[in-house]
Amino acid sequence: MTTKKYIKNYPRPQFVRDNWVDLNGEWSFGFDDANAGESEGWQRTFGGDRTIIVPFTYETKASGIGEEDHHPYVWYNRSLDIAAEAAGKRILLHFQAVDYMAKVWVNGEYVGSHQGGYTAFSFDITRYVKAGSANQLTVKVEDSKDATQPRGKQRWVDDNFECFYVQTTGIWQSVWLECVEQEYIDSVKITPDLDASSVRFEYQVKGERNASNKLRLETIITMKGRQVKQASLAIDRPWLKLEVDLVHEMNGPWKRSYWAPGRPNLYDVEFILYRDDVVIDHVYSYFGMRKISIENGKVLLNNVPVYQRLLLDQGYWPDSHLTPPSEEALIQDIDLLLEMGYNGVRKHMKIEDARFLYWCDVKGVLVWSEMAATFEFNDNAVQTFTEEWLEIVRQQYNHPSIITWVPFNESWGVGSILRDERQQKFTEGIYHLTKAIDPSRPVITNDGWEHTVSDILTLHDYVASGEDFLKRYANKEAIVNKETTCNQWKYALAEGYEYRGQPIMITEYGGIAFQSDKGWGYGGQVASEEEFLARFRGITQAIKSVDYICGYCYTQITDVQQEINGLLTEDRKPKISLAKIREINT
Q1: DSSP code of 574?
Q2: Domain of 229?
Q3: Do 175 and 198 fall within a single domain?
Q4: What angle do CA 462, 465, 470 make, to 5 degrees?
Q5: From residue 459, how far is each of 452, 484, 508 by CA, in Å?
Q6: In the predicted model, is pLDDT for residue 252 greater than 80?
Q7: Rounded CA separation 13/331 (Å)
Q8: What is the pLDDT of residues 282-303, one digit of tens each?
């Protein structure tokens, strides 16, 4: 069941307006390896000699180019038709993601720039466009092989290696336009409080306020088509808060209307902005009443322990790489995950398309949101990582499906964290900054091993045998007290940090690959489905049998380029019986 205002392919389904223009499709395109485009005036007279299908990057077949060599500077251009009725209104230009540095011009005039490959950004281009006529939109993208740039699984050398794949350069998620009035709702932060049966809204309203114009913001909450609450606020400043009491509703007609796997109840909410009692903005959103907490070594969902059966998902497709080929492709991955008996996904080294999170919200899938790593440590890495990560937390905050933040993984970018105080303090700082924006979700630093401050102790271990796993994890105290490594390689905690009773999970294991000379998996490759299932069953059941372990994450849902350890092929064909996988999981 979708939310009240579901629009297929709408790029930002948590904050929906009816009036929008999709700018995906064919654009003019050009490589600029010598970085001469700006000095030659490409922003005014475009110099590219190719075409590309946005939002697919030039490295992909779906783009129409399919060239995998690294090009540090690329340019895009297209015509923008702005309707005559838009005169007097604001025109907002949205980019869902551009990797890595984007500069934007409209009609040859510089609009602005944005740095960060995984975050959405927008520009108010009102003053640069002419309503009722064609306009020119030009974008220059700068990408690099700098290992201090948050890049995740994108390679920073010429060829793929180990678990690192073809880079992503340029526009890789949707580009679109909105037309709004002079005053409009810019954002709303939604915080449910399950214990108090209430929800808090924090609004930001943009635009010039005139004393003669009375602005009023109305909030309407509905559940399953019936109105639950309505509240109104006078607008006297850019930021406002509203606490809405849902005690009667949650103890009455909507009793136990919580959000959870198998029962993903969502409240629809509308935000309506009035000027002198005339509607000037109307935004549709939704929220879920759910709570994530930690108690007595367990992770609790809505005050009840939840055993997490997660599947690692890197979000790659054979012809479009990091860009989903369609919304249906995102839904397919979620449905396959559920069919295999998993209740959640660890989105690995990637900030996924907002439509993926929407469908996880709707279908009841738990999500761990993980930052794309840097691979060197210095002041520049600290700054670029911090700025982009905080943008991500703010942008994804409202999704009820996200239950855990994972800023660091396996000491990537903080390779000396075991003993290096600077790297340890960096992860502590990210932990506390994340908590300053969102105190409601667990934060993990550093997923896999060598944790500093962390709400969950998460361990990675690709041991192939259930018997060997049980031997390694028989003595919990030896692992958490660093008397032994957790995986015959790494300690669970960094030096100077002690175990404080956190929940313990195995958040990478398995990675089983069938025999092939075209790629790799973890451990020895298997020759048959029977051999695969015996190994999968043995290690999964061993993990489930350890009473102090409260969840796991299997590697992984699909093959990715040279990494062939997926339960599915790259084109989503099952390698083994999904029913048998489900039986073992549940």
Answers
A1: B
A2: 184-287
A3: no
A4: 90
A5: 13, 13, 7
A6: no
A7: 14
A8: 999 999 999 999 999 999 999 9
